[in-house]
Amino acid sequence: MKPKIAAQSGTFESSDVIFLIEPLPHNSGRKIELYSTVMQQYGVSFRRIVDEMLDQFEMTDIHLIAKDKGALEPTIKARLETAIKRSLDQQEGTLK
Amino acid sequence: MKNFKNRRTMLYIPGNNPAMIQQGGIYGADSILLDLEDAVALNQKDAARTLVRNMIKVTDFYDAEVCVRVNHLSTPFGMADLEEIVPLQPSAIRYPKTESPEEVIELLNIIEKIEDRHGLPHNKMTIHAMIETAMGVQNVFNIASKFSRIDAITIGGQDLTADMNIIYTPDGAGIDFARKRIIMAAKASHIDVIDTVFPDVNDEEGLRRETEYARKIGFTGKAVINPRQIDVVHEVFTPTEEEVRKAYHIVKEFRANSAAGIGVFAIDGKMVDAPIVARAEYVLRLANVQVG
Amino acid sequence: MLNSLGREIPEYMEGIGKLEPFQGALTKLSKGWMDEPTIPAPNKAYLPHQSKLCKTLEEAIIRSNPHNGMTVSFHHHLRNGDILLVQTLTILHNMGIREITLASSSLNECHDPILPYLVDGTVTRIFSSGIRSQLGRAIALGVLETPVVIHSHGGRVRCIHTGKIQIDLAVIPASAADIEGNATGSHGKSAFGSIGYAVIDARYAKQVIVVTDNLVNYPCIPLSISQNFVDHVVLVDSIGDASKIATGTTRITNSPMDLRIAKLAADVIENSGFFVPGFAFQVGAGGASLAVAKFIREKMKTKGLKGSFMLGGITSYCVDMLNEGLFETIFDVQSFDAVVSNSLLNNRHHIEIPAALYANPFNCGCITNKIDVVVLGALEIDVDFNVNVITGSEGNIRGASGGHSDTASGAKLTVVVCPSFRGRIPIIKKRVHTIVTPGETVHVLVTERGICVNPAFRELEENLRNAGLNIKDIHDLEIEVDKITGIPAPLEYTDKIVGIVEYRDGTIIDVIHQLKEHGA
């Protein structure tokens, strides 16, 4: 799937992560930029989580930027899921 | 009698704050209340719901009971909250602004349908009804007494005063009647009744005064908005050593006398009968003391 | 060769000399004396009514025989407000002096401006109890050829006695001084309280410059530093940024997490068997450590229990407890806020002590030996209770040995307080990156997720269990926390040694390897 709209989730607070998603032109694939205060220690698993979740939602033509301040895995997954659903305009039960 | 849970403190944790959720279990609160309602901005309801769902799945909250406050079904958020949270079966769902038994019936129908879809029992997760409107206060006995799944009711002081068009004052004058009416409904229904939060986290003395009052008039616990408030509330709601010693003595004597076929007896010249024994047993449960 | 904690220690290092491996906290002391000879302090002469006053710091430095390869020392009582260390090194740099050994009792963020002097060879060796910020990062990445030596506060005194640090020039900032160099930190606009770390420098340095922004009529009392050791006196406009030296009073943290840890630590202390009338107590100046004092204060009042003395880094909180009669005496080697200076000056039960009396292991008894209970922090702790307070999770040098190992070795009960993880990084490790304080001197670890008792202290564990505290095996807690955070990838290091960590007795407890720059 392709993002319909630019979307964001999460915060810049400690133990949280912020995801920004932008649609890219057709056939652009995925452009991913990950930044983290714990990149040295958790960079590999961070990248794996992002890839797996983008695969799961079959996301393509997506520009994703993440800024992490030491979020735990369930937080990373929750924020990314929210950002993806928002970018697909599929979020439920919230004001936009 | 229902399963006994100690609910001296219920710690509110904003549902969209990962730092606070991941530390929720460390403060020793009896209950953790993950809040999807007032603590979450209207345009972050989806984010909070997803975060709370993920965190509940993997976070160890240690001995604390885990409850989730969902949004009311009349909002655009309530149904989505239930769809996401009910399958996780937290200890309890806290339902805000409960006004009538009809609302509870609607809520339970939806919850049970979700539970059926997931093959879950209808009797594990309980409901805490929040009374925070004048209408809710008027209907509280029918809310508290008619549903086996409701095992606690609580008062929401800030919302209630707003609904009453009065200003919340530290002496609690405006909500005193509501407090006592809600307590009586809970006592008549044999369920827990939990007091509203004390908003000034820096006023430890004020918190202690209000908690002492809450205990005196019959509340079984108090909601807290900051972990720093937990110790004070626990101190107030935990029986003193003297109270525990007396209760222990009463229960022990009672068992000895019952074994001998004696119903009413005296300790230190004072008559001990069933209500006094029941009260003593309650004190020992609060203090987590067994009579061996 | 391996030391007794299994750390590989080289036998010799260029620029440092022979290294003796750590063999246990009390092994070397149990002999009763120190084999290494002490060097003599310099003998000086001075004519009646000669003048020590110099117009500028530069003039004083010129009169102090600056030369290549010299050792320059400083104290860190001005904390992050110090400006004189940078000024002094800049003057020496501009004179073309090279290969300086910098021997500051500690280094802070405010000293980052000297980094270019490490790069260009002005400063080639460093002795300090702590290094932080950009300096710490640069040193971890290998900016210096010769490894830095990290010593404890007590160990620094020993280093100076034995000549491991031979001070050519000591620059001693003081908030009040007279023309003969009698000096103190206890009054004046830049008051910083105790000047305890500088006393040994004044005694042993070949040249001593007292720098003040407050030249008072002779004599300046109290004689924290006395004139018979001072060569030159300089009056300057400012010795530092007063707002960063000492301000107001210390506030107890509002962080629920720190307060939770502190509350648990206070419960540990109360039930340890050492919370008895006349107990001696030391806490750190910040975070959870200081907050322990808040709870201990309440417990002392409730029980009507009075202690003997408080020691170490002193905050206004300690002063309050002294004034309330909860303790009889404060021994103050370092003061943390403005109120403390005032108390030090005016209360005869608040006593300024030098580092040697505070913590030097090689004398007839330092005061740390008399501590009953000390509460300390940690950057990391491992399942053997070894504590790292010098290298951060990202591999930088970013902390201080300070009095950590000194007080831990002396106390009957050493309580380490820290969160179980910080910024997702677990604090409890299988093996800490750098050992500063050996596990044999640490009794209890208190985290927000449980209390771990060193298995060597069974009776203590029994006491705490009987009190109903939440005791966990440290191995279990380590696994529990790893489960929450995920296991971090290890950092990468080269074979080059960039730092040597001395234990207080002078043996080497660990070394710090050069960090590989991430992404490089």
Structural notes for this entry:
The complex is a heterotrimer of chains A (96), B (292) and C (520). Chain A is α+β, with helices and mostly antiparallel strands. Chain A has a single domain, classed as Ribosomal Protein S5, domain 2 (2-Layer Sandwich), CATH 3.30.230.10. In chain A, 34% of the residues lie in helices and 25% in strands. Chain A has helices spanning 39-56, 73-87, and strands at 7-9, 17-23, 30-36, 62-68. Chain A is globular, with a radius of gyration of 13 Å. Chain B is an alpha/beta fold and 292 residues long. Chain B has 2 domains: 9-237, TIM Barrel (Alpha-Beta Barrel), CATH 3.20.20.60; 241-287, no CATH class. Chain B is built from 12 helices and 10 strands. In chain B, helix 2 (45-58) packs parallel to helix 3 (78-85), helix 9 runs parallel beside helix 10 (230-237) and helix 11 packs across helix 12 (274-286). Chain B is globular and about 65 Å long. The mean pLDDT of chain B is 94. Chain C has 520 residues and is of the alpha/beta class. Chain C has 15 helices and 29 strands. A 10-stranded mixed beta sheet of chain C has the order 3-13-12-9-4-5-6-8-28-29. Chain C is globular and about 70 Å long. Classes of the chains: A alpha+beta (96), B alpha/beta (292), C alpha/beta (520).
From the structure above, extract its key features.
heterotrimer; B: 292 residues; alpha/beta; TIM Barrel; eight-stranded parallel barrel; two-stranded antiparallel ribbon; 10 strands; C: 520 residues; ten-stranded mixed sheet; 15 helices
Q: What top-tier CATH class of chain A fits best?
A: Alpha Beta
Number of helices of chain A: 2
Main β-sheet of chain A, in a few words?
4 strands, mixed
Radius of gyration of chain C, whole Å: 22 Å
- Fraction of helical residues of chain A: 25-40%
Q: What is the rounded distance between the termini of chain C?
A: 31 Å
Poorly predicted spans of chain C: none
What structural category do the secondary elements of chain A indicate? alpha+beta
Count of discrete domains of chain A = 1
Q: What is the name of the CATH topology of chain A?
A: Ribosomal Protein S5, domain 2
CATH architecture of chain A: 2-Layer Sandwich
State the oligomer: heterotrimer
Biggest interface goes to: A-B, 24 and 26 residues
Number-wise, the strands of chain A total 4
Shape of chain C: globular
- Measure the end-to-end span of chain A: 21 Å
Could you give the order of strands across the largest sheet of chain A? 1-2-4-3
Beta-strand proportion of chain A: 25-35%
The share of residues in helices of chain C is 25-40%
* Average pLDDT figure of chain C: 96
How do the SSEs of chain A run, as a string of H and E?
Answer: EEEHEH
